[in-house]
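Can't attach files on this board, so I'm pasting raw text. These are the components:
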Amino acid sequence: MKKIEEIHLPEELRYSADHEWVRLEGELARVGLTDYAQDQLGDVVYVELPSVGAHIAQGAVFATVESVKSVSECYMPVSGEVTAVNGPLADDPVLLNQNPYGDGWMILVKPDDPADHSRLLTAESYRSRLKGEA
Amino acid sequence: MSEALGTTGLILNEPLLWERGKKGRSGFSIPDRDVPSRPLPLEMTGGGPDFPDLSEIEVVRHYTRLSTWNFGVDTGFYPLGSCTMKYNPKINEKLAGLRGFAAAHPLLPAELSQGALQLMFELERFLSEITGLDALTLQPAAGAQGELTGMLIIHAYHRLRGKQKTKILIPDTAHGTNPASAAICGYAPVPVPSGPDGIIAPETVEALMDSETAGIMITNPNTLGLFEANIREIARIVHERGGLVYGDGANMNAVMGIVKPGEIGVDILHLNLHKTFSTPHGGGGPGAGPVAVRKDLARFLPIPRVVEKNGAYELREDFPESIGRVLAFHGHFGILLRACAYILSMGPDGLRDASRMAVLNANYIREKLRDVLHLAFDRPCMHECVFSDQNQQPTGITTLEMAKRLIDYGYHPPTIYFPLVVHGAIMIEPTETETKEDLDAFIAAFRSVAREAADSPAVVREAPTRCKVKRLDETAAARNPCLAG
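---
Top answer:
Structure tokens for the assembled complex are below.
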């Protein structure tokens, strides 16, 4: 398992305390699991994503990720409507381990309130939270 | 003990049955036909199943060899936390094999099944006494079906009162089946975070328990092996706000004859006969999850129910408010019979002693390993103790790897990565049936694994190396399961 210093946390992303990352892309927000989360989960073997069009509130479960260790739920970092999901993850869950910020992304959301994004954690504050947790 | 428990020996390989055998071989003889031959109707004929042709010795060797690859509680220590892998006394098997029971047909009428019905009736009374609840169903197939039965009873209760609810409170230390059972019944599970001491605080329940909440599902002792000491207060809050308290009795082995759940606020409780009441389990075989309820909820219990009238027993279906049948025939009768044999042979004092010993053994292991393994919650435990791999973090060795290494020492690994509230959890449940010598040998083995984690991590990373099947690729198995024979 990686040490906290080795966890890759891109500066331009925002993070939730529940280990999701958010990237603003125009009016939309792309969401995935952080490098820390994928490392802790271990090899992911199954990902269940929501339906496109679903409206999910911040803090509610939007996906289930099963690894060889456990089944974990992923919590919505911002309230909004799901406009797309990463279909290839269903057949190839390893993407989530290999490239969590790239083709291992999970969902694309149209946030109810774009300002929600700025209330999430920065890479620096997320990392210091991780240090507290570990 | 001077010699290590885990060793290697000659292990025989064994192919699949389909790779054995030759056309025309047979393991049995059909008696000569004594009636004239008649052709079958065409629609009833066709190709047979794809079974290999095998001789008797091929079948006997096949299963005997496979059995030598197995590890069970009759082979060795099996401290799988939350599963209560206690030894199952052989007297249970002897009684379950009695011809009158083993050969009984489930469609026999009640007047020809008096012994079986009486056994069920009396087992219900015993379990009622143990749980402190008034009435029972023995039907549910195992714990999770017991939970669903309990949820259906809660649903029926609120429906009768004219106010259906939508949510159920479930502590974050619950077994994963709890939220699943609630969700199948249509309730939204609401997680209740446990406090810093590993148990639920009444204030947390108070804040979450609203008019839309049907009740709480609470496991006591919880999956951290800690007694939910606030249970009475939690039950008071839930009752006051119109809810019911469902007790998950999976961990009843800690408190048999000591705590009666019905007396501390629990309204409905399932028991796992295959855990607490010592019937074989672990290989996916049948379990039994009886559900006990307080008096006013008895009307909702599944039908048929065993009723006694003038010394005779019958199965009655005339309970109009019942949630209906949840399992065919008499439930898993063979398991009920074993549990009844266990209760009768142990007696009330024996059951109480079993729970005391189970708690003592867990605390012994907890004390003897606490300097090498990090204790998740540093307080006395009940029937199981939960460590983590925190102390091993500098070595890079994880819980999974230590568990695999224990196999080389001749032990079934403990439960790992559960409960989820403990990061890298190692959950050890020794049960009451282990001797001190066996506990000491296990403790020595675990201490040795912890030492190896620091001194020779490569050995731990490659484990297990001494058993027939070495380190499996669990990821490939989960991602690309091979389900064909």
